[in-house]
Write a structure and sequence with these properties.
The structure holds two protein chains of two kinds. Chain A is α/β, with parallel strands linked by helices. Helix content of chain A is 32%, strand content 17%. The chains are: A alpha/beta, B alpha/beta.
């Protein structure tokens, strides 16, 4: 996993609440057996119409959204299915952070495992970001802060171990494998 | 000193701590049972291969195929090729991965195959007090037996395959206390839809729900599974119900439960699991079961739900709400009753067990589905299918004009080609009415098997009490 320390980017904004993982990556694209290439299917049914033509009005299809690495979304982003394909599709597309007032549990866990930072902020900051699409913001992972262009800096909760893994570019599997003696002892005990 | 009273969840959590959590590091939680399916496992097996790791505990791992598998008998048993190439590839890849890593597989033609959350309890694999995970959010279903069961992503599937453990922060607890009698025509599905309506689709985020109270104690095991199944639709990764004599008699004699003395020892441990008197929950919510009516969704998430006779609410300042109604082709302030439907789906890990099929068949017996309507009945497992056939339910469905299929997830998520057409309305006994969930452009109304069957007869949204 690539370390994530400081991220500065313009934002792309999807104001809808409760964006579920079926929207992020529809089920018909889950027949893949690899992680690669899912960015092309990200928000497939919102980006393209039934004929496969890009919908010009959709935020990610607008020229200003090109190259944005931070997605701002309405409340309760990533609810629904546990498909990690949702996190893979977002990172493959180029996103490294998602900002919302609420982010669903399983998606949040999956995101962190893939170097995609879930940023939970208060309603006031979220409302301001939704009202100002395309602004450049800076996320500091070590301080767990988000700096807005109007000079405000807001902090967000970040689980310390996940923060450590993001900063160092580590994955958890190495840590778990190093607990093997404890796991062996547990299995003997029960 | 007496131990502080504990909840069911806390007892199960405590018993599975390999390493307790600290401020810096989450708990290392031991997993008793890992269920694996074809869609969320290929990349996890690839991770093991990349790192040269074996599956640590094949005996605690069971694989099956359900999500992308066909439901037509010709494709499952008749030798016809699986129509979707990518799905066929996933099936072959799971077979190869299980063979390579020594994992037991209930494969496509196995007599015990089925939806992963139907076969776990059915085989007696899912037991009280266990930790159970699967790369599927409806793993919460197994909480009906008093297990701590939750969905995980594919990276975590890899972690469990390699170490039988997960790194977890302890979630908070939410008691949903349900009291009173469910009225005639009102099912466990209606109750959980009412609970989700009350909590909202993120009301359970960060929590494990314990469903409690006299109504819950009075539900049979399949009804309890329907309840726990939809915990995730309120945002809660897990839902649990205290094991009791109903649980133990359900499990007794199933193929994978302990036998002889081991059964007695297990029973003694299971009886200690229910939450202690005075145990504290982080939050509590009370629901009056007697006030619950047959419920139906009208929007694009399971929290957009109302009694079947109600009018769609008006939320003039809510753009997400307006967008949902636009997608659904429905209007605020109008009733949903008598809305014409094109497709009826009886199936999914929520409502495809024998008792669900019996309920739907009771409505359809001696009746026919409306002209022009398509109805799919997809049993939750091959065992459910055979049990239903043994009591003639297949004939009831076929005589009514419905299709009777092999088991699988099918039209719940439309991965296998069983889809609802663009713009069409489906009444579905499944768990999600998200945009495009049952097919691109499909419009899903979630309801109970009784409501789905009654609506199939009339070809429009129908209160099942009118056909009783």
């Amino acid at each position: 996993m690539e370390p994530l320390r400081i991220l500065t980017s313009r934002t792309a904004v999807l104001p809808a609440a409760n964006i579920d993982t079926d929207q992020i990556i529809p089920a018909r694209f889950l027949t893949t057996t690899t992680r690669a290439g899912l960015g092309a299917r990200l928000f497939a049914d919102w980006r393209y119409d039934a004929q496969g033509t890009a919908r010009a009005e959709f935020a990610l299809n607008q020229p200003a959204a090109v190259g944005c690495r931070i997605l701002v979304a309405g409340r309760n982003f990533g609810c629904g299915s546990s498909r990690e394909h949702a996190a893979w599709a977002l990172t493959d597309y180029g996103f490294r952070a998602v900002i919302s007032t609420e982010i669903a549990d399983i998606f949040r866990t999956n995101a962190l495992k893939n170097g995609l930072l879930p940023v939970i902020v208060a309603e006031t900051a979220a409302a301001w970001l939704i009202a100002h699409p395309g602004v450049a913001v800076t996320i500091d992972v070590a301080r767990s802060t988000l700096a807005l262009p109007d000079g405000r800096t807001v902090s967000f909760p970040l689980e310390p171990f996940a923060q450590h893994c993001l900063l160092e570019g580590l994955d958890e599997l190495g840590f778990l494998l190093a607990r093997t003696p404890d796991i062996d002892a547990f299995e003997r005990r029960v | 000193m007496a131990r502080a009273p504990q909840t069911l969840f806390e007892k199960v959590w405590q018993r599975h701590l390999v390493c307790a959590e600290s401020a810096a590091i989450p708990a290392v939680l031991y997993i008793d049972l890992h269920l694996v399916h074809e869609v969320t496992s290929p990349q996890a097996f690839a991770l093991l291969r990349e790192r040269g790791l074996p599956v640590r505990s094949p005996a605690r791992t069971l694989a099956t195929m359900d999500h992308s598998t066909p439901t037509t008998t010709a494709q499952v048993f008749g030798g016809a090729p699986i129509a979707i190439d990518a799905a066929a590839r996933q099936v072959r890849e799971l077979e190869a991965n299980c063979a390579e890593f020594g994992v037991e597989l209930l494969g496509l033609r196995h007599a015990q195959r089925g939806i992963v959350h139907v076969i776990g309890p059915e085989l007696g694999l899912s037991q009280p007090g266990m930790t159970i995970v699967c790369g599927d959010s409806h793993t919460s279903t197994h909480g009906a037996l008093g297990a701590l069961a939750f969905g995980i992503g594919t990276t975590e599937v890899g972690h469990v395959l390699a170490t039988q453990c997960l790194l977890q922060r302890k979630p908070r607890t939410l008691a949903v206390e349900v009291s009173g009698r469910l009225a005639s025509g009102v099912t466990a599905k209606d109750l959980i839809l009412a609970v989700i309506g009350r909590l909202g689709v993120s009301g359970g985020t960060g929590h494990v729900i314990e469903y409690r109270g006299d109504t819950i104690r009075g539900l049979d095991m399949e009804e309890r599974m329907t309840i726990c199944n939809m915990s995730i639709e309120a945002g809660a990764r897990a839902g649990m119900i205290a094991p009791d004599d109903m649980t133990f008699s359900y499990l007794a004699g199933r193929p994978r439960v302990p036998a002889g003395d081991a059964w007695e020892r297990a029973l003694a441990l299971w009886r200690e699991l229910p939450s202690d008197e005075g145990a504290r929950f982080d939050r509590e919510v009370s629901i009056d079961a007697a006030a619950v009516e047959p419920m139906i969704t009208y929007g694009t998430n399971p929290g957009m739900v109302m009694p079947i006779g109600a009018h769609i609410p008006q939320r003039p300042d809510d753009a997400t709400f307006a967008r949902a109604l636009e997608y659904m082709g429905l209007n605020a302030g109008e009733p949903i009753k008598d809305q014409p439907v094109n497709v009826v789906f009886i199936g999914s890990c929520t409502n495809a067990r024998l008792s669900d099929l019996r309920k739907a068949a009771a409505v359809l017996r001696g009746r026919r589905i409306a002209r022009g309507l398509t109805m799919l009945v997809v049993p939750g497992s091959q065992q459910v299918k055979r049990a239903a056939e043994a009591e003639g339910l297949d004939r009831v469905f076929l005589d009514a004009g419905a299709e009777w299929r092999e088991s699988g997830c099918s039209m719940c998520l439309g991965m296998n080609g069983d889809v609802v057409g663009r713009g069409q309305y489906a009444i579905s006994t499944s768990n999600r009415n998200f945009e495009g969930r049952q097919g691109a452009g499909a419009r899903t109304l979630l309801a109970s098997p009784l409501t789905a069957a009654a609506s199939a007869v009339r070809g429009r949204v129908t209160d099942p009490r009118e056909l009783a």
